[in-house]
Here is the input.
Amino acid sequence: MDKKQGLLLVNLGTPNVATPDAIKQYLTEFLLDRHVVDLPKLLWYPILKYRVIPKRVPYIIHHYQKIWINNASPLLHYSRLLCDKLQHHLPNIQCELAMTYGDPNLQSALNNLRSCTKITVLPLFPQYSTTTTLAVLDKIKQIITSLNIIDHIDYIRDYADHRSYINALYLQIKQAFHHQGEPDVLVLSYHGIPERYIHNRNDDYIQRCEMTTQLLVKKCRENGINIPIQMAYQSKFGKGKWVTPSTSSTLQTLAQRGVKNVQVICPGFSVDCIETIYEIDEENREVFLNSGGKNFYYIPALNDTHLQINLIIDLINYIQPVKLKN
Here is the structure.
């Protein structure tokens, strides 16, 4: 019997395999999206094709090959596990996974959900941004005009301040402190965005990140965690001005000031990926240790843990979704 309710999880995307051609194909689709890079296409496409892609592919292929899990990128591996576990816990809801860029694609996932009388879309980005969540919603709108299911779809805008999300992050931190010891400083590292997007698009992403930080710090303080907690932004791309402070400069400064032990968590990443496993746990680890730090620990994303499962069940049960409109 067809399930009447559908849940569509959407993450950013990933190359299908760790090969130059697959990475080139993924990066081209991703970086040509105007939500991600808003430069005029006539100007941007030649730069992307002849300068950015040839430079980026050799740089990241080695890192992708090192972190591949069971013939898939970590992002796809953990997203699949999360979707499968949610299906087990929600037998009356049809759960599907899609990526904004690459496979599994949104078209196929929405086709699989066509028999559902209600579809809830959950972009796996805790803090709304025009570069991520809006890109998902606009792509879905383009697809469903031909499927005639617009009336059946709603979405969860974000969950930056949701109690279950803050509690899940707190418990993940508490568990890390239990196993690794309490650090001198805890750093919350969020994905950065260009500053102009905040003003040109009225993007409230930074406000949502700051809200998560405030609530998480409050939760930690209420439970006896009184160490300094700092927030920063990672993954800058290109030469434009991005939001600050940067994660790497924050870690460098902490080490230079004599801080020996830090732990880093990335609240904006629902599952681990190249930005967390390589950029944070390798690149930024080196920055901290080479600047005089002694101990660095990356606190994993929620991934497919029971904390994430319970969080998403709470979101679909208790948060008021928004109707998708053309």
